Amino acid sequence: MNIAEPLLAAIEEFNKFPGIGRKTAQRLALFLLKRNEHEVKNFVNSILDLKSKLHFCGDCFNLATEDKCEVCLSPKRDRSIICVVEEVSDVISIEKSNEFNGLYHVLGGVLNPLSGVHQDDLKIKELIKRASNGETKELILAVNPDTEGETTSLYIAKNVKHLGIKVTRIARGIPIGGDLEFADEATVGRAVLGRIEI
């Protein structure tokens, strides 16, 4: 069966999304085809806004609409504690738990030499510079508890040791090999509250 070119193009684009197979991509494309023009334009504009209105915070590399994100701009946050995470999705998960009131630092991944990800590919230098400001008292390492996450945690702990900062990691409420993004708010909240020193 021949598929009309515009539909095929839409299916191909949806198929590029993580976790979206060909059948789901087809369902999504057909769903959009059934929507009225106003709804489709709203959808397209929201995607364009993602690229044009969002960028990374100059301090913590969280998503922001200005030079700094809302967390970094908030006078209510505890500036002496920085929670180090892999990705922006982890910030969202921890914020949903309502258990953390400090600042964040998004690394942009974890060390993985086999995949070609080294310390210069992540925001580790920026983290060490931030932690050296004299205001930081604790770094909470909230990276995923897998081999790459542990390697990254140990590397960071070793490189900030000379600063005399307390370095902790979230408790093992997150299962080994699990992702913060998929954990429920209660589990993430308990993990942040039950962090341990490295």
Briefly characterize the structure.
By secondary structure, the protein is an alpha/beta fold.
The SS-based structural class is alpha/beta
CATH class of the largest domain: Alpha Beta
First-to-last CA distance: 60 Å
Q: What share of residues is helical?
A: 40-55%
CATH topology annotation of the largest domain: Dna Topoisomerase Vi A Subunit, Chain: A, domain 2
Shape: elongated
Core attributes:
single chain; 198 residues; alpha/beta; Helicase, Ruva Protein, domain 3; Dna Topoisomerase Vi A Subunit, Chain: A, domain 2; 2 domains; five-stranded mixed beta sheet; two-stranded antiparallel ribbon; 7 strands; 43% helix; 14% strand
Structural features, described:
The protein has 198 residues and is α/β, with parallel strands linked by helices. The protein folds into 2 domains: 5-53, RecR Domain 1 (Helicase, Ruva Protein, domain 3, Orthogonal Bundle); 67-197, Dna Topoisomerase Vi A Subunit, Chain: A, domain 2 (3-Layer(aba) Sandwich), CATH 3.40.1360. The chain is built from 8 helices and 7 strands. It has helices at 5-15, 22-34, 37-53, 70-73, 88-97, 124-131, 147-160, 185-193; strands spanning 55-56, 63-64, 78-85, 102-106, 138-141, 166-169, 196-197. The strands form 2 sheets. The chain has a 5-stranded mixed β-sheet. The mean pLDDT is 91.
Write the layout of secondary structure elements.
Layout lengths: L4 H11 L6 H13 L2 H17 L1 E2 L6 E2 L5 H4 L4 E8 L2 H10 L4 E5 L17 H8 L6 E4 L5 H14 L5 E4 L15 H9 L2 E2 L1
Parallel strand pairs: 3-4, 3-5, 5-6
Antiparallel strand pairs: 1-2, 6-7
Helix pairs in contact: 1-2, 5-8
